[in-house]
Each structure stands twice: as structure tokens, then as C-alpha cells.
Amino acid sequence: MKLIPVAKLDVQFSERLQVAEKPGPLRSLAILISHSGDSWFWLAGLALLLWRGTAYWQEKAGILFGGIIATALVVMVLKFTIRRRRPTGEWGQIYRRTDPHSFPSGHAARALMLAVVSLGIGPSWLGFVLLVWAPLVGLARVAMGLHYLSDVLAGWLLGLATGLLTLTVIGAI
Asked: Is residue 60 part of a domain?
């Protein structure tokens, strides 16, 4: 199979999933889920736990904070090396201006990394909640027209890898 037909299928499947220009509850839900994976949101929440949490939560927050930073560094190197343009669209101008590249999806990578690391360090309920949430974040990014499906698939693979690496570094596996 040639790469060009695969790329065309990627664009076609991604366009079918888009709801960015279709007002309604599905679009509103996709916006909420898409933003729930924003790095600033997670870093602020984890910083708050580091500052005010119990020792138990401070340890977890520190590990997750480090995982987010490591994942972001790998994502940015790949994005600026590959330089795949985001799908055209109007929604998400802040993402389009600050980061015009779509491959791999940083949101998808971050979400799956958080799930993998949480499954490894506990509490287990948090890991399972994040494991359900992570695929929704990736799909919401496609639905809002910010990524192609292949961007998200690559992001999930990267998130799995950085999550496992984070667990290895801290000695959890």
C-alpha cells in the first residue's frame, strides 16, 4: 500500500469525525473534553498539589509533572522536525497560532502518559478514570478539527512510551 492513499484515508476519516462547525451538544462536549487535556490545566493542578497536597499527593504530582514535561519535550522535537500542518479550520485559533504543527498530538500523548503513569503509581481508581478519559481527549481533538486521526494515534503511542519510560525511571516497573 502506498503512503499517498493512506494519507488520503487519514484526511477522509478525520473529516468525518469533525463537529467543530456543527453547533450542538456534541460540539460542546468535544470542546470540553479537548480543553481538559490542555497542559496549562494539568500543570496548574499538579503545581497546586505540590504546594498544598499531602505527602502522598505531592509525590504523585511530582512524578506526573515530570512526565508532562518529558512528553512535551519529545512532542515538540517531533512536531518541529516533521512540521505537518494542522487541518484547516476556524476553531482553536490559540492552538493554531502558538503551535501550527499537528503531528503528533501533544494532547493525546499527554493524556495517555497520565493514564499509564497513574495506573503504575496509583491510586488505581485515578488510573482507570484517566484510561477512559485519554482516548476521548484524542478523539475530541480530531472532532474539533485540530488534528488528523494519525496525529492522535501517534500521540497515543508516544504517550504509552513516555508513560512506560517515566515508570521505568522512577523504578515502578
From this structure: yes
Domain enclosing residue 82, as ranges:
25-169
Do the domain assignments include residue 4? Answer: no
Q: How many domains does the chain have?
A: 1
Residue 14 lies in a domain: no
Question: Is the pTM value of this prediction over 0.85?
Answer: yes
Of 147, 149, 158, 165, the catalytic one is 147
pLDDT over threshold 90, residue 8? no
Instruction: For residue 151, tell me if it sits in a domain.
Output: yes
d(CA 14, CA 25): 19
**Set 101, 107, 110, 141: catalytic member:** 107
CA distance 108 to 138: 5
- Give the three cell numbers for residue 11: 484526511
Closest residue by Cα to residue 136 from 96, 161, 100, 107: 107
Q: What is the pLDDT of residue 113?
A: 98
What are the phi and psi torsion angles at 101 (to 5°)? -100, 145
Per residue in 104-155, pLDDT (tens digit) is 999 999 999 999 999 999 999 999 999 999 999 999 999 999 999 999 999 9
107 is catalytic: yes
pLDDT tens, 26-49?
Answer: 999 999 999 999 999 999 999 999
